[in-house]
Amino acid sequence: MWRSSLLLLGLLVLFGALMGWATRLRAPTPLAHEAYVWQRSWNETLAGAVTEPRARLSGILCLAAEITAEPDGLQLRRVEVDHDALRGFGGSGPVAVLRIFPSVAAGGWSPETRTSCDDWIRKIIEEWSFEHPGGIELQIDFDCPESRLAEFHSQMVRWRTQHPGVPITFTALPTWLRQERFAALARDFPDYVLQVHSLHLPQRLSAWVGLCDPEEMREAILAAAQLKVPFRVALPTYSCLVVFNDVGAVAEVYGEDLPESLPVGALDAIALDSDAPLLSSLVREWNRSRPELMRGIVWFRLPAPGDRLNWDWPLLSRVISGESFQQNWALRAEADPGGYHRIVLQNEGDAPYDLPMSLRLRVPGARAIGSDGLSGYVSPVNPDPEASQDAIFEWHLAEPLRHFQKPPGWSGVVGWCRWQGGAAPPVQESPRVPNPLPPHP
Prior knowledge:
Number of strands: 20
Radius of gyration: 26 Å
Number of helices: 9
Largest sheet: 8 strands, parallel, barrel
Low-confidence stretches: 1-23, 203-207, 433-441
Strand content: 25-35%
Strand order of the largest sheet: 1-2-4-5-6-7-8-12
Distance between the termini: 40 Å
CATH class of the largest domain: Alpha Beta
Number of domains: 3
CATH topology of the largest domain: TIM Barrel
Structural class: alpha/beta
Mean pLDDT: 87
CATH superfamily of the largest domain: Glycosidases
């Protein structure tokens, strides 16, 4: 009898596991791709960027206004959106995004805060509905503290009741998924956007650093799928510069623009980038199999000419297509009239890549005289002039986190070296072959 019970229990466990696997990995419909327009200054260049990608994007989500808490009270900062450009995009109606800073409701939603937000939301909906009579949506971008999700849920219900004809959604942080209250919020407002990109500051040099941790992302997506509510995922296209003060605290974060006069190289700072090859591989993976309720990707943010901290449109288009990228760094020695050789590094790949951590050059049959590094590279070990057969030169990237990725075609002088003799041209030994992306289970 007990054996039969165990067998039945085992079959139930297996059935449950298979059902769970089936809900995560199915043959899904094609991923929808949308993009945020987060720029606050609209001009002809941005307007042109909005209409350019309409063949590849199904929707546009525009920053419409921001609510901030100032010393003299709440303030609304409106963005003067070019609605003609949005109409030129076509497709479904645009989404107006209202960003509410956490400080607005840090102490709870007071009656004054509710009234002000109610009034501003009404005006935004009226303006956008007038400009787009075919219909709009409203999205609330509020980094709510996890402990106050119940209050935020009440506010969302309040706004939906006030505007029953306008679909309202929100952006969610992965940390919210751990809260029991989030399930009710998601069920009431499906098709929310799960923002899986954020600033990951390093605690140590060997730790993962970036804008989008793939393992955290997968865990968040699977957790969201368990709620049985449709959702979208926001992925990054931008870079950011994190500047630290004298005591090591974050002094400034530049993620949307870099001042022209900013002395980037002289700052105590780290540079973080979106990883195009990694994200493209994830798009390929999700096109094959993904949680059924993951309906699409919203890219942050729409490429526009002159945006120095963002991908360009051709790169985003390739990522949307899930193309494979090839990493290829070339190292060469160029003779200088001064009797030494300049060491030139070039990105011959087809995507932006981090600088190689180490470089190695071998000159067959030569005797090494000296070397040094430039542009962040150092030559930590003086070449051995007594070494037989070949001259070996090495350079290492001293502070890899200080450097932005280099675009395709980039080249720069990263060091110099001097040798005597030699019967053959220098040989690049490192980086010699592309570094493959890690496989995704």
